[in-house]
Amino acid sequence: MSAPRNSPVSRRVSWAYMAFVALLAVSGTMQMPIASRYRIVAVPGLAWLGDFWLTHKLHYLGAAGLLVLGGYLATRWLLEWRREHRLSAFGWTRTGLVLLLMATGAVRVLKNLPSVSFSPQPTMLVDWAHLGLAFALGLVALARLMFKASYWRQPAGANAPAGLPRRGAPVS
Question: Nearest CA to 118 among 1, 15, 126?
Answer without folding.
Answer: 126
